[in-house]
């Protein structure tokens, strides 16, 4: 199925010259003069080689037929990341290359969307938001307003993020899984 290059987003799978590539990032560039282009950074699924391609926004690419389904994350071990299909309880294992930057955000029982081709996981799509506990941060300073600068904090998943000064150790916060940025205090 042919699709416009400008419509591709992260996680999309394209077929180029009989090989499957997963889109790692897609950026539409509109120069002041000339034709707008789409810059795609992709990873070849078969061997993990990363490539960068540039297309005019009017050009089309062949989108691969993949199966997108919800899976539940079970655990991580030496083989990879294990997921279960909640409909039929089939389990699949995704490699570290497929999961990539999403690994720290995976939590037991989290529902993710896995793209599979011939039963092999090729891409993962996380929920937009995830909740983690702050395990280390600087103490709050008296008379410091909420509108002041953010302070660094270490989360229970091992990532660092910037949080408002009123957030203390032990507070559960919601972060954006795209970049790990603070969104709000958890409501639970």
TrEMBL record:
Biological process annotations from GO: peptide biosynthetic process
What compartments host this protein?
Cytoplasm
Domain of life of the native organism: Bacteria
**Which CDD domains did the record assign?**
S1_EF-P_repeat_1, S1_EF-P_repeat_2
Q: What pathway does this protein act in?
A: Protein biosynthesis; polypeptide chain elongation
Q: Return the InterPro entries for the record.
A: Elong-fact-P_C (IPR015365), NA-bd_OB-fold (IPR012340), Rib_uL2_dom2 (IPR014722), Transl_elong_fac_P/YeiP (IPR020599), Transl_elong_KOW-like (IPR013185), Transl_elong_P/YeiP_cen (IPR001059), Transl_elong_P/YeiP_CS (IPR013852), Transl_elongation_fac_P (IPR011768)
Q: Kindly report the protein's main subcellular placement as a broad class.
A: cytoplasm
Give the GO cellular component terms, alphabetically: cytosol
- Elongation factor P C-terminal domain residues are 130-185
- List keywords of the entry alphabetically: Cytoplasm, Elongation factor, Protein biosynthesis
Q: Where are the transmembrane segments?
A: none
Family named by the database record: Belongs to the elongation factor P family.
Per its record, how is this protein called by name? Elongation factor P
Its taxonomic placement starts with:
Bacteria, Pseudomonadati, Pseudomonadota, Alphaproteobacteria, Caulobacterales
Q: By which gene is this protein encoded?
A: efp
């Amino acid at each position: 199925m042919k699709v416009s290059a400008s419509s591709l987003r992260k996680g999309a799978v394209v077929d180029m010259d009989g090989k499957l590539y997963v889109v790692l990032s897609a950026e539409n560039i509109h120069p002041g003069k000339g034709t707008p282009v789409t810059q795609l950074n992709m990873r070849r699924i078969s061997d993990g080689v990363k490539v960068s391609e540039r297309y005019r926004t009017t050009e089309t690419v062949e989108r691969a037929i993949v199966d997108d389904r919800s899976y539940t994350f079970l655990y991580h071990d030496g083989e990879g990341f294990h997921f279960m299909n909640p409909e039929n309880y089939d389990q699949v294992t995704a490699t570290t290359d497929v999961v990539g930057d999403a690994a720290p955000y995976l939590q037991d029982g989290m529902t993710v969307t896995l793209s599979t081709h011939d039963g092999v996981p090729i891409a993962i799509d996380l929920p937009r938001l995830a909740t983690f506990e702050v395990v280390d941060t600087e103490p709050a300073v008296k008379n410091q307003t909420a509108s002041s600068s953010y302070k660094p904090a270490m989360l229970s998943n091992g990532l660092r993020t910037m949080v408002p000064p009123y957030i203390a150790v032990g507070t559960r916060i919601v972060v954006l899984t795209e970049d790990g940025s603070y969104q709000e205090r958890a409501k639970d």
